[in-house]
Amino acid sequence: MATHTMIVRSSSSSLAASSPLTETLPLFTTRSLTFPRKSSFSRLRLRFFAEKLSQIDSSNGCASLQDSGDNLTEEHDTKEESSTLSITVVGASGDLAKKKIFPALFALFYEGCLPKDFSVFGYARTKLTHEDLRVMISRTLTCRIDQRENCADKMDQFLQRCFYHSGQYNSEEDFAELNTKLKEKEEGKLSNRLYYLSIPPNIFVDVVRCASLRASSVNGWTRVIVEKPFGRDSESSGELTRCLKQYLTEEQIFRIDHYLGKELVENLSVLRFSNLVFEPLWSRNYIRNVQLIFSEDFGTEGRGGYFDQYGIIRDIMQNHLLQILALFAMETPVSLDAEDIRSEKVKVLRSMKPLLLQDMIVGQYKGHSKGGKAYPGYIDDPTVPNNSLTPTFAAAAMFINNARWDGVPFLMKAGKALHTRGAEIRVQFRHVPGNLYKKNFATDLDKATNELVIRVQPDEGIYLRINNKVPGLGMRLDRSDLNLLYRSRYPREIPDAYERLLLDAIEGERRLFIRSDELDAAWDLFTPALKELEQKKIVPELYPYGSRGPVGAHYLASKYNVRWGDLEDA
């Protein structure tokens, strides 16, 4: 829930012992006691009206916010004029930081979404100067959304706000030096600090400890964005959460799953709850099955060292696809407040049966030659052990034990080195009872069912498959698509998911971030099957690079009288 923040110095352990809002000390040197206030959605609505009044030509309405929206909101007052924002990207020399985080921050700056007084610091072990960092990240910056102002000038302005500090991830002294540099930029103003941990999970706690003790804000808020993976199973995830909460409150931890920032995923609740045509159909009475599909048309290709530690189930299914499932299946929340939405998602996860081994299949891609080109298998990757049993493909059937979804199979499928790249949600509806046109579909009644497809990527779109009469004198039926293709309807480029999530973290909006009890419930569903897979050393079914995946996935779907919808379109 969005909050007003009152800063209290944690100068004694007695405060921690007496306050019900505290976690185990030591915490960040400032504590945030939270009180209800107007939600971020109210602020977003005010932004919308500000945009209309000012006729802002912008893809996200942030462009002239400081000029047009300040007089409409309580947040943008003289108090904000005297505050600063310091964003520290920990692991600044890594691929994620270079390819996603810095470009997203620049896009927010370009669109006018960042405060007037902000600075960006890169922190990593690599020895770099300020100029080295600027040259490195300048290679990935683009003015891709709109050309309202000279792109080169905007890049120069942004890069002059970027600085670098080299240090060890477990060194309090190095973070104390970072703190000194942050204070120099903050110039005694009220300082808000955001840390983005773009680092391996085994050093999360070291960084949080050092930042907590040596580089937290003393008069504003401090927040930490944590990248997945959040552990390998229930036990390791719970231990990570306990360790983080020695230094952070739950309200300071922003567990990011970038798929929740995808435009079509965020639109999912809008599609359902603001369109009368869909909500009455959103149950077991009308929906036959739901398919959540993720596919990549490339393998690990030299980057298998990280992937082999986790596999496709932990990397994609336990987080990306399960989060989408929870959003899809949740009951109507009391409000659009972050806690109301996240509580409904938790209810869905707690209503689900833990995944059983008989309800899933795993696969691993093998080498294949196609069109005169040879594609290597997974274990041909030099960074992967020769005897690896790590799945690069998995399909699973999951069920929700509640009145709305009882008996409806939710089928997940995720894989690498497949025939196509994409991510989509497919909702297959039941057959029409007593269909008058049954004979026109011969014996294949599946072709007579309606299907709603939400394509998350690429070519974002929503289409509804319906039955239609082919023009002519005869009675011949056809399946046609009512298609909303985003690039046709909304010509401006869609902002990257990291832009939305970074902006939400800056504003304190937690709706698209994962709460600790939500994370626990998610791991509880997958941990038993993952342990059984590893203990029994289940050998994954091999499938050729560039194929549609292992045959076992088709048998799994047919077990529940389901066809994979993406294969019919292929």
UniProtKB/TrEMBL annotation:
Pathway: Carbohydrate degradation; pentose phosphate pathway; D-ribulose 5-phosphate from D-glucose 6-phosphate (oxidative stage): step 1/3. One of its GO terms (biological process) is pentose-phosphate shunt, oxidative branch. GO terms for cellular component: chloroplast stroma. Residues 89-267 form the Glucose-6-phosphate dehydrogenase NAD-binding domain. SUPFAM superfamilies: Glyceraldehyde-3-phosphate dehydrogenase-like, C-terminal domain, NAD(P)-binding Rossmann-fold domains. Catalyzes the rate-limiting step of the oxidative pentose-phosphate pathway, which represents a route for the dissimilation of carbohydrates besides glycolysis. The main function of this enzyme is to provide reducing power (NADPH) and pentose phosphates for fatty acid and nucleic acid synthesis which are involved in membrane synthesis and cell division. This is Glucose-6-phosphate 1-dehydrogenase.
